[in-house]
């Protein structure tokens, strides 16, 4: 079945440094979504990418969808303490099927002030 | 408007007992999902309901797990003969149409099996 892998699992950065998490799917995706989960909270939708090579920005966050639609990345510029949390990517297989989104295991972002 | 709600927020049960977890999706959302999240881990897909179609149960870990969605709205996840390894946070999410739409998550039910 479809697998979605995220790296790194944990990332420690100093406040102000940049951060990137990578997401790779074993199959071609029709779309990919990114979610953020604060400690003790539930996942909250950030963005969805649909087109090959698509790049979207939200303030300090930049999201990319690979040309082959099998990988994606989230880059945060100049991290702040409010960025702490776990970032999940979730992909839908382009082959269809009814098994919902497949979530990666997430990247835990830890920021040291 | 109201978001996705789940009840109870916390449940402690003894091994071997049955539990029911409830999810109220956002009104008008036709798709509903159940996930399981162990401490510090990712989201494990359990089951997906889309409108009146037969649910996709491919993620249910064993036949002790079942779920229903009545009237296309409220859903109940039932775990029979609970085991300690069932301890986790059970998250429910709904979306407007299908997986192409963003998912709105509820606060989860933290299940502890002693």
How would you describe this protein?
The complex is a heterodimer of chains A (113) and B (114). Chain A has one domain (4-112): Immunoglobulins (Immunoglobulin-like, Sandwich), CATH 2.60.40.10. Helices cover 0% and strands 56% of the residues of chain A. Chain A has no helices and eleven strands. In chain A, the strands form two sheets. In chain A, strands 2, 4, 5, 9, 10 and 11 form a six-stranded mixed sheet that branches. In chain A, a hairpin with a 2-residue loop joins strand 6 and strand 7. The model of chain A has no long low-confidence stretch (mean pLDDT 93). Chain B is mostly beta strands. Chain B has one domain: Immunoglobulins (Immunoglobulin-like, Sandwich), CATH 2.60.40.10. Chain B has no helices and ten strands. Chain B has strands at residues 5-7, 10-13, 19-24, 31-37, 44-50, 65-69, 75-79, 88-95, 104-105, 109-113. In chain B, the strands form two sheets. In chain B, strands 2, 4, 5, 8, 9 and 10 form a six-stranded mixed sheet that branches. A four-stranded antiparallel sheet of chain B has the order 1-3-7-6, with no helix packed on it. The termini of chain B are far apart. The mean pLDDT of chain B is 91. At the A-B interface, strand 4, strand 5, strand 9 and strand 10 of A face strand 5 and strand 9 of B.
């Amino acid at each position: 079945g479809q697998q979605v892998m995220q790296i790194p699992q944990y990332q420690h950065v100093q406040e102000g440094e940049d951060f990137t998490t990578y997401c790779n799917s074993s199959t071609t995706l029709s779309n990919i979504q990114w979610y953020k989960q604060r400690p003790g909270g539930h996942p909250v939708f950030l963005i969805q990418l649909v087109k090959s090579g698509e790049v979207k920005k939200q303030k300090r966050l930049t999201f990319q969808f690979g040309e082959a639609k099998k990988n994606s990345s989230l880059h945060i510029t100049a991290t702040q303490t409010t960025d702490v949390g776990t970032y999940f990517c979730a992909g839908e297989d382009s082959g269809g099927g009814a098994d919902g989104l497949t979530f990666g295991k997430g990247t835990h972002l830890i920021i040291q002030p | 408007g109201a978001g996705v709600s789940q009840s109870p927020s916390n449940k402690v049960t003894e091994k071997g007992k049955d539990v029911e977890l409830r999810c109220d999706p956002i009104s008008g959302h036709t798709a509903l999902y159940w996930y399981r999240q162990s401490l510090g881990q990712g989201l494990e897909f359990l089951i997906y309901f889309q409108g009146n179609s037969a649910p996709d149960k491919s993620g249910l870990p064993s036949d002790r797990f079942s779920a229903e969605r009545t009237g296309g709205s409220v859903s109940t996840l039932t775990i029979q003969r609970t085991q300690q390894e069932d301890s986790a946070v059970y998250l429910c999410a709904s979306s407007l149409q299908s997986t192409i739409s963003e998912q709105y998550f509820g606060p989860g039910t933290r299940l502890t099996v002693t």
